[in-house]
Amino acid sequence: MNRTLVISIDAMGGDHGPSVTVPALALAAKAMPASTRFLVHGDAAALDPEFARHPALKAQVEVRHTDKVIASDEKPAVALRRGKGSSMWNAVEAVKAGEAVAAVSSGNTGGLMAISKLILRMSVDVDRPCLVASWPGAKGLTTVLDVGANIDCDAERLVEFAIMGEAFHRAFHGVAKPTVGLVNVGSEDVKGHEEVRLAHAILRSGKFDLDYRGFIEGDDLSKNTVDVAVTDGFTGNIMLKAAEGTGRYVEAELRAALTSSLITTAGALLARSGLRKFGQKLNPPRAAPLLGLNGVVVKSHGGAKAQDFADAILMAASLSQSDFATEVEKNMTRLTAAVAESSAPAADGAATVD
Amino acid sequence: MNRTLVISIDAMGGDHGPSVTVPALALAAKAMPASTRFLVHGDAAALDPEFARHPALKAQVEVRHTDKVIASDEKPAVALRRGKGSSMWNAVEAVKAGEAVAAVSSGNTGGLMAISKLILRMSVDVDRPCLVASWPGAKGLTTVLDVGANIDCDAERLVEFAIMGEAFHRAFHGVAKPTVGLVNVGSEDVKGHEEVRLAHAILRSGKFDLDYRGFIEGDDLSKNTVDVAVTDGFTGNIMLKAAEGTGRYVEAELRAALTSSLITTAGALLARSGLRKFGQKLNPPRAAPLLGLNGVVVKSHGGAKAQDFADAILMAASLSQSDFATEVEKNMTRLTAAVAESSAPAADGAATVD
């Protein structure tokens, strides 16, 4: 990489604003080339005192002042109507203008999706930027998408998710040939509704540069059976929240069980280093790319701490420096050709025959 | 109850057959009136030695010999074609013939659903008998349905699940007025796909004897936000398996973390009574009714132990002695009326207006 890497930052998003985003920049900068630059969008009056504590950053940062902020509970439609000139809006617009290669925000998800879609436009045919989750399991992290943006998905949308998820997993995790699975209620070809069966037939056709492994089930996620798990936004959102809820419940029960008597409490105290390790392993990364846009946008969690937001910046950097965009484009062209080839009746036939 | 309660038992199903089902009968009999009778279907040569160990049961049991058994990996279509005369078939047929008020089997789920549907027929308009799960949470168990039988569900099917799930929860858990929620990707009326929004509008109309609380999300299950959570069989199966997988993963990680060093192992040993309690609380009941049939059929887990299978027998007894059937029928009549009242365009309108 010879060219200077410029990342655009919405410094006002999330629960903590500059008190988290500025220390995060300092953390991220240490892990990136010294030539990296940050365009930081937000309220200069709030930002300057934070930057004063990180003088080493000065040469890498350009603050673009705005006092307009999108509230964390703003509806997407309102964010669109009134968001122009806000720190989030300006962060994304810098990518559109070619001033930065990627934008990072921990502002509200719906607003960020809507603004990113309006400014950058979609590069694929999905309705809204696709939400990605990293699902922790025994062997590492499975990339899961869509986890909530696109509620109604036909077979082509599911194939698009597979293409984007695979390219993202390679770009971010450095796996040369990620494996891909389609979430269903069983592993046989006849299982599931028409959309998943048709997507299965298209993915199995071998027309894409994908290591497609077929159907997987809900319990395959924690087993990391595949690197990339594809599902519609309705199912993905519900299964993710159901599993998160179960994880929290199990942790709470565990705490209660371990402090139910003096003896067990003493045991828990002795075991606490083990338990701490356990807690860390269960907490997945809190950064997620919005996939399907003409440009890189990474969403950090609203409650992100400095290290979380720094991780989101690093994710944005690796995505923008990877072949993600060209790989997706190549496979999308193949998808268009595959769909054109198989006229509507043939496509229906594929679903039934398989 | 003056009349004798007769339960029909498939004694050959599950991984262990009579060595589990007979001791289970002994356990169940202790918790039931002495007048209870069991019609036990299976291989007399395998059953007799088991019953010899439980002489107290003798007066309550009638063995109906058959040496035909449906294998645990039999496809439903094959079970239907070749199942006639098997222990599972005969157990269900005794309900149809009026010889027993309920049937219990730990045989294969697909086979039991197919045979039950063929013999007993559906009492409601769903495609297949509805599968129910009991979801453990902080405050108890949430009844979740459908968890895998009916993949494509329109709004009316979802309302039928609500009606049946609510009646089941009252009959089995003794809750006078169970609360009901519809699983979705958000709590606002505009969220989700058309089927859930229309089901929401029908349920909110107040035409049923239901305490309907609106949309819930995936993480509401472990919180027991409602007593009964309604979803289609595709989403339900995937969210259940995803949560089960997460639960197993968390337990495995916990065990690994607690035995990672001598100190933590010592701590885990001290804490073991707390940990045991924790494990028990996470294991939900392994019995599930097949809802929507003209008759009570309860499925026990294939790997059921004697207490699990005894619990399934008790569930069958409480369902058959409850007002489940009449309550479902009453609300189903109201549903038919509500759907007839709102002609197709009005129903569409409801989804949009709401």
From TrEMBL, chains A, B:
Gene3D superfamilies: Isopropylmalate Dehydrogenase (3.40.718.10)
Entry GO terms, CC: cytoplasm
Keyword Endoplasmic reticulum annotated: no
Catalytic reaction(s) noted: a fatty acyl-[ACP] + phosphate = an acyl phosphate + holo-[ACP]
Record keywords, A-Z: Acyltransferase, Cytoplasm, Lipid biosynthesis, Lipid metabolism, Phospholipid biosynthesis, Phospholipid metabolism, Transferase
Keyword Iron tagged: no
InterPro entries, per database record: FA_synthesis (IPR003664), Phospholipid_synth_PlsX-like (IPR012281)
Subcellular location: Cytoplasm
Record GO terms (molecular function): phosphate:acyl-[acyl carrier protein] acyltransferase activity
An example Gene Ontology biological process: fatty acid biosynthetic process
SUPFAM superfamilies in alphabetical order: Isocitrate/Isopropylmalate dehydrogenase-like (SSF53659)
Pathway: Lipid metabolism; phospholipid metabolism
Entry EC number(s): 2.3.1.274
Enzyme class: transferase
Similarity section: Belongs to the PlsX family.
Cross-referenced HAMAP family: PlsX (MF_00019)
Assembly notes: Homodimer. Probably interacts with PlsY.
Function (record text): Catalyzes the reversible formation of acyl-phosphate (acyl-PO(4)) from acyl-[acyl-carrier-protein] (acyl-ACP). This enzyme utilizes acyl-ACP as fatty acyl donor, but not acyl-CoA.
Protein name: Phosphate acyltransferase
Organism: Phenylobacterium glaciei
Gene: plsX
